Amino acid sequence: MATMNWRERAAAKKQQQQVSLPKEWILTNLPDNSQIDVTEFPRTCGLLNVREIEITESHVDVILSNLAKGIWTAVDVTTAFSKRAIVAHQLVCFL
Questions:
Q1: Which domain holds residue 65?
Q2: What are the φ and ψ backbone dihedral angles of 59, each rounded to 5 degrees?
Q3: N or C: less crowded end of the chain, CB within 10 Å?
Q4: Is the pLDDT of residue 88 over 60?
């Protein structure tokens, strides 16, 4: 079996990463390549709900306070930031 060069290995890893994403988190409404400012896209893409947007746009002291009070769970916060990261990743890698 021949060894893969770095390009083949990178392509294989990219494919592996793509198939590991939850299917419901894969965006079909990515902005056009010509759109330079995508700062509002995480709010408007439809993947994050209102609570997840609030979580990911909160300062760390608010997050910690809401976790301590039981307003948000660790799962809520982790899921919100995971979704936001997936949005960013898709904007960077698949445009």
A1: 24-93
A2: -75, 155
A3: N
A4: yes
